[in-house]
Amino acid sequence: MIAADRTVLILLAAGRSQRFGDVDKLTQDFLGKPLAFHVVTALESVPFLERIVVKNGTDLDFEERGYRVIHNEEPEIGMSNSVKLGVACAQAMGADAVMIALADMPRVTATHVLRLLDAADGVDAVVASSDGVKPCPPAVFGADQFPALLMLEGDEGARAMVASGKHVIAPAHELLDIDRPEDLERLRALR
Length: 191
Known about the structure:
Layout: E1 7-13, E2 29-30, E3 33-34, H1 36-42, E4 50-55, E5 68-71, H2 79-92, E6 97-102, H3 110-119, E7 126-130, E8 135-142, H4 146-149, H5 159-164, E9 166-169, H6 181-190
Parallel strand pairs: 1-4, 1-6, 4-5, 7-9
Antiparallel strand pairs: 2-3, 6-8, 7-8
């Protein structure tokens, strides 16, 4: 188990959202608040060492919600750039691990995140979420994985690392990733 208070949460909010259209999907209303603030609210009770959001373009005020904001000035490089920016900050803090989550996954729960931390068995751990079919974020990476994370390139993020790591199953509806307007409509229909 890796303790939450030794783990830095890295919330990725710098995607270009090309599949969503010309609007900032993170600000889209879902149950009366911006889409991105659902995961923020869900994880408020988890006592992370630090909360970081890597963002570009969204006007949402994550600082007001207790996040250190890092701006990804080059989102076109892909998700790997956001991961590297967050991990470099966490490494400088001396974190034992990072929890990487996506701002466009509004159904993630604190219970699931704590289960991921419980399954992490040391600083070399890679523990990802899964719907029972494919692995996905949120995911925990122990400090011994930081060098590999800092070498990532492109838009794949840590997909290969996650595929070969340990997986913790969660219901598919908790792991919904909102990429297109129809994904948001499907989410609204689930209420």
